[in-house]
Amino acid sequence: MTNITVIRDGAVARLELSAPPHNHVSAAIVGEIADALHAVDADDAIRAVVLTSAGRVFCGGADLTGDRPLENAEGESETPELYRNAVRCFAARKPIVAAVQGAAVGAGLGLALLADFRVAAPEARFCANFVALGFHAGFGITHALPRVVGLQAASMMLMTGRRLKGEEALAIGLVDELVPLAELPAAAMRLANQIAANAPLAVEATRATLRAGLAEAIAKATDHERAEQDRLMKTVDFAEGLRAVAERRPGNFLRR
Question: Which of 52, 92, 95 is nearest to 192 (CA)?
Fold first, then answer.
């Protein structure tokens, strides 16, 4: 693995994403995360996972810069593979605590949502800014976000594209615990160890019941999301959205 480091600390495995400077995801990187999670599943000595990232940004989502975003070196869309790997992440068996120190944007929000719990610092920012790009949400967010915060709060985030600070995310239940930035790694490990201290078969059985059908629902959601993304990427508004976000100005959308 080139972007994921796995560090074992007792019964907890710490998975760290490092793809500086913005920890953008790609099909390959999400595949590495899925591989790491399933390797952990095969290790009976590991009972919980902390998902973290290096630097100031938790995950900046997919890299939409350049002339042909979301394409691989062969000029083909990498979205189908990215979403297949996202489903593999959601299908992982052991409890996951995400430690969110900074921005979790777009697919980065999706990455945070695959965890069972999110511990964050006040500096964290959560944003589903797809509509500002003239784009449709992806990474299964249209299913995962309402499941965590409820339909109304999810609708507000998805249809306004607004950015939530750590305190706001805590208030709607997107974050489970808010701690000072310097205490974030320890707090995430503390929660993971609280989970790991319990009977592992009972924890995994309880988690499986709570998440029953989740991976399948994410697969169905990403199929629909990808179709909508493919359609909207051909629009004038999507091109304008990319320019507007890059230039830090409101988009001038024309409904075409």
Answer: 95
